[in-house]
Amino acid sequence: MALVIDIETIPRPGIMDTWFPEWAAQKNPDATPEELERMAGLHAEFGMVCAIGYASPDVSKPVHSLTAATLEAERDMLVQFAETLQHYGGTLIGHNIKAFDIPFLAKRYLAHGLRIPEPLRVAGKKPWEVPHVDTLQEMKFGGDCSMSLRSACLLLGLGDPKADCSGGEVWDLFKAGDMGVIARYVESDVEYTRKLWRVLLGAKV
């Protein structure tokens, strides 16, 4: 069995009160404090997962999402998602999941003192031992040019997954308490990712 996944991440609460701003400013000397804070959401040690979307690759099946508005809620969400992973098996499908989603999730499990679910335990494994499918890698077709999910969907005439919301808006939505909008956004990314995967398989969308 397989599972299509996507996550949304944000800066960890209180991260600007740690040594992070000084560290980030050294790498980005022209960035404002707000810009530095946003950058924290891209790193598991400085950020957290605020939403997880997942679905069967079968487009007739519904897309689900989990959200977390606090660090405590993130822990509960990760526990619930681990149960989902156990049910679906070991193959994950997503766009840029090998470089971002999987390592980010694994590190957040560690941060909460939780056991990393087996599908996320890929460290040290050879490429052919990891069953996951990264549609970003698939869309390279042996080249070195990465293609965003939005660009891939444009190429294939699948629609615009960012028509209603984009990843850059998630932090602002989170601060405004719009968790429902974030949930719909992560679900949309999952829906478009599985459409892309079906096209790559040669199946009808």
Provide structural commentary:
This protein is an alpha/beta fold and 205 residues long. A five-stranded mixed beta sheet has the order 3-2-1-4-5, with helices on both faces. Helix 1 packs across helix 2. The longest helix is centred in the last third of the chain and has 23 residues. It starts with a strand and ends with a helix.
Shape field:
globular
Strand content: 5-15%
Largest sheet strand order: 3-2-1-4-5
Distance between the termini: 19 Å
Poorly predicted ranges: none
Number of helices: 8
Mean pLDDT: 94
Integer-rounded radius of gyration: 17 Å
Largest sheet: 5 strands, mixed
* Percent in helix: 40-55%
Task: Sketch the topology as an H/E string, one letter per element.
Answer: EHHEEHEHEHHHH
Class computed from helices, strands and strand pairing: alpha/beta
The strand count comes to 5
